């Protein structure tokens, strides 16, 4: 069903979601070479067809995403594409976000407003647990009847304000400190009501979680702090890289303890924080003036322990960590190494259609270069600047493209090296509906290449004559014979052909050249 719906475009999905190859098998890369906005739109369209093919009346799909306030533009556009597919009745999207972090100008709010004009949106505003629900919550945790937990539940509610996370941690703290304990002879939980009432708790969840983390052994705190630097979740093998232990080969007591305490959840080969406030609490334990240094240490450990094959799958994590500590990197060779890694991460992000990330990586790579980088490391400088210009075009930051392209035009050695920048500039200008200006730029480049194009209008007879002359060159040749002709090798001629190919669409929309 998937192959029938998506066809040869399935290779685009497999590239973004490698695990799909378990279903589709090995595929040839039949993707069309497009980039920027075109690639993102294409991926969204293909993913929409994929969801439609697997979401059926007998197997509907519910997609839930948390923390939408942190979603980037590409992710929001994909969500928009999926939820606005009104033909698919077997797909439900559920999203959650913190409304105190989303104002009217926030990208999420703008996207929701746009979607709401075409598709009905059900909004559910969650609140803290009520007093009655808190009693149900406590009785469920202790496996006791609600009537027997009323006194404890009322205290928990009064001290936590009904905050579910704080209530959970507070109850665990009561057990840890002995105010809540299990009686074996009566086979039930009991508590010291006076001790519970006397127990003070911090005003917010983070402070309470900090207290809990500080009670853990140093190895457990170390793991939590390092994990908090990486994000909300971490692959098992990545955790092994930063801790120096191979988790699958044997027990890891500190990690087991963290899971037992409910701070981390293990889902298959992924470890994730049970709540984002736990991640925040762990991160807050790292002194502010030491955080960037810790990020750098994590990135360095990944570089040191990751194999060449493994490095591709952790490139984003490694570069993110290293970029946080660039102010501590003074060695020029190390800067060049990190600039290369940023180029690698940026190009991978481009291939996956995450263009905002690509811009950030490539800009970080450029910032690491010395002023004389074009003389010392020409190839790296050219690749970084060229890819950066393309990534800016991909997210529509047209105002910055001219400056990015100008550096390449001034510093590149030959016209062939300048060509990608020129093409990006032409596309960017045309995308702003300045087709005539784009055409003028292209004609100027063609002139520099020694292929001037006459701008005077041709008569019908002149055009027929030109077409006749062109056809005459291939008279008597089959298509196969034409394809077997020697490939063009002159770089200037190849560059001119690429410019002319780009021009065709623009000339079509203009009455005069």
Offer a quick outline of the entry:
Helices cover 61% and strands 6% of the residues. It is mainly α. The two termini are 49 Å apart.
Descriptors for this entry?
mainly alpha; two-stranded parallel ribbon; Orc1-like AAA ATPase domain-containing protein; AAA_16; elongated; 513 residues
How would you describe the overall organization of this protein?
The longest helix is centred in the middle third of the chain and has 20 residues, at 332-351. This protein is mainly α and 513 residues long. The two termini are 49 Å apart. Among the domains are: 2-116, no CATH class; 131-201; 435-508, no CATH class. It has helices at residues 2-6, 10-16, 21-24, 36-54, 73-83, 107-116, 131-142, 150-160, 164-177, 193-198, 205-214, 218-230, 236-243, 253-260, 276-284, 291-305, 308-324, 332-351, 355-367, 373-376, 378-394, 398-411, 415-431, 435-448, 460-473, 479-483, 491-508, and strands at 61-65, 91-95, 180-183, 188-191, 233-235, 264-267, 270-273. Strand 1 (61-65), helix 5 (73-83) and strand 2 (91-95) form a beta-alpha-beta unit. Strands 5-7-6 form a three-stranded antiparallel sheet. The chain is elongated. The protein has 27 helices and seven strands.
Tell me the fraction of residues in β-strands, as a range. Answer: 5-15%
Note the quaternary state here. Answer: single chain
The Rg value, from CA coordinates, equals 30 Å
Please estimate the helix content. 55-70%
How do the strands and helices of this protein lay out in sequence?
Elements: H1 2-6, H2 10-16, H3 21-24, H4 36-54, E1 61-65, H5 73-83, E2 91-95, H6 107-116, H7 131-142, H8 150-160, H9 164-177, E3 180-183, E4 188-191, H10 193-198, H11 205-214, H12 218-230, E5 233-235, H13 236-243, H14 253-260, E6 264-267, E7 270-273, H15 276-284, H16 291-305, H17 308-324, H18 332-351, H19 355-367, H20 373-376, H21 378-394, H22 398-411, H23 415-431, H24 435-448, H25 460-473, H26 479-483, H27 491-508
Parallel strand pairs: 1-2
Antiparallel strand pairs: 3-4, 5-7, 6-7
Helix pairs in contact: 4-5, 5-6, 7-8, 8-9, 9-11, 11-15, 12-14, 12-15, 13-16, 16-17, 17-18, 18-19, 18-21, 19-21, 21-22, 21-23, 22-23, 23-24, 23-27, 24-27
